[in-house]
Structures are given as C-alpha cells and as structure tokens.
Specification:
The chain is built from twelve helices and no strands. By secondary structure, the protein is mainly alpha-helical. It has one domain (about 25-260).
Length: about 260
C-alpha cells in the first residue's frame, strides 16, 4: 500500500472512531429518529391496507409492499440533515482545526460517510424486524433483505454527501433545512415508495424512473419477491453506486473549497 493510501486509511479510521464515539455517547438520537418511520409503517400500513385490491397493484399485502418504502424513505430523511452536523463543526471551529492537521481531506469526508452508513444500516434492520413482527413477509429471504439494506445505505450516502456539500458551500442552517423540507416530499411521492408504478399517472411514472429513491426501491423489490429478478437489482444498483461515488467526490472537493476560503 502506498504512503498516501496508508495515510488516507489511517486518517479515516481515526476520524470515524471519533464520530462513532460521539454517537455512542448519545445513542438516543438513533432511537428518536425512528419515530417518523414507525408512523409511516404502522399508520400508512393500516390506512392504505385496501389499496392492494386495486387491479394492477401486484401484491397481496400492503405491509409487504410498504416495508421497503419505509426503509428507503427513512434513509432519505435521516441523511438529508447530515449537513447540520457539519454546520456544528464549522461553528465550533472543530473543522478548521482538523484542516490544519496532516489528516487527509478524504479521511474527514469518509468518516462522515461511514458514520451515516452504519446508522442507516442499523435503523433499516430495526424497521425490517418491526415490519416482520407486524406481519410483513420477505419471500426473497436474506439475500433480498441484504440488497434492501445496501440500497438504503447507498441512497443515504448520496443524500448525506449532498447535505454536507451544501453545508460547506452555503454555511447556513436555514438554507439546509428549507431545501431539505422542500425536496423530501417530492423524493417520497414521486417514487414507488407508497404506490405501485403501474397505478401512477404517466408523468409521475416518468419522474420516478429517474428518481434515485425509486432506483433503490426497484433494486430491493426485484429481489425481495418470491421469484427474485437480479437483473433490475444489478442495473439500478450500479446506477446508485455511480451516483454515490460522484456525490462523495463532490463532498470531498467541497471540503477543499471550504478550506481555501478560510
């Protein structure tokens, strides 16, 4: 391993350790942020239970359909505000102090990505277990559930990286909150999170086709069915991987841009 790569790996390890230690000192945050997905899961699951009787919906249980939607939407809402933690570090001066140390800029960005990925994976597993306890079925078994968790992590990283980029460039909490609130509903309801695409209006189907949230959902549902289809999972998963790499790279360059302005 080359010296720059060794420095990146070592820096990522220590920066991640720092962030996870802070998270473990206040684990209640992970529990409290599960309140909203629980409302989606149990309230929407009961409220729209009869929607599966519509011709063309394609599943027998709305709870089976909604669990992947709740997992992915929780990843979106959880990570959309990742930039607020970056704002905290900017305001406390912590980020500026790290930027004058030898730690590589990629390590600082990677630590945030890893923290958000682990938090997202944990919450996704909790939602899956609660869905199962409520009566949801997962015919695709462990491989399908693994794809669902992986997809939630990838879409979460995309949103976290974009949120951090926004925080580094704008440095204003109100702007971050406003944009996230404005985007959360379109990302949710212009996707297949809560309604089968075949029952959507034509224009919403076209928007959902290019919505990364739908990519994550389509990849997951394709392999959670009783007859798993890995082709859509591979296709949409590859799109998510490319988008993830692009947004993480953007966040890293935004960090360097921030440093130049200090």
């Amino acid at each position: 391993m080359t010296a720059p790569m060794t420095a990146l790996v070592t820096g990522t390890w220590w920066m991640t350790h720092r962030r996870l230690s802070a998270l473990l000192r206040n684990p209640v945050v992970l529990v409290l942020t599960l309140a909203q997905p629980m409302v989606w899961l149990f309230l929407f699951g009961e409220l729209f239970e009869k929607v599966v009787e519509l011709p063309g919906f394609g599943v027998r249980s709305y709870l089976d359909y909604i669990v992947p939607g709740v997992v992915i939407m929780n990843a979106v809402s959880l990570n959309s505000f990742a930039g607020m933690a970056t704002m905290d570090e900017i305001e406390r001066g912590t980020l500026d102090r790290f930027l004058v140390t030898p730690v590589r800029r990629g390590a600082i960005a990677n630590a945030g990505v890893i923290e958000q990925a682990l938090s997202t994976a944990f919450q996704s597993l909790v939602i899956i277990v609660l869905g199962w306890a409520a009566g949801a079925h997962y015919p695709g078994g462990a491989p399908g559930l693994a794809v669902l968790v992986a997809a939630s992590v990838l879409i979460g990283i995309v949103l976290a990286a974009l949120s951090n980029t926004l925080a580094l460039l704008v440095r204003d909490r109100n702007t971050i909150i406003g944009l996230n609130v404005m985007l959360l509903l379109p990302l949710t309801f212009l996707s297949s999170a809560f309604m089968a695409k075949d029952l959507m209006p034509s224009w919403i189907r076209h928007v959902a086709a290019v919505n990364p949230v739908s990519w994550a959902l389509d990849a997951s549902r394709a392999v959670l069915s009783g007859d798993p289809d890995w082709s859509p999972a591979a296709l949409h998963g590859s799109w998510l991987l490319v988008l993830t790499a692009a947004t993480v790279t953007l966040a890293t360059y935004s960090l360097r841009s921030y440093q130049k302005t200090q």
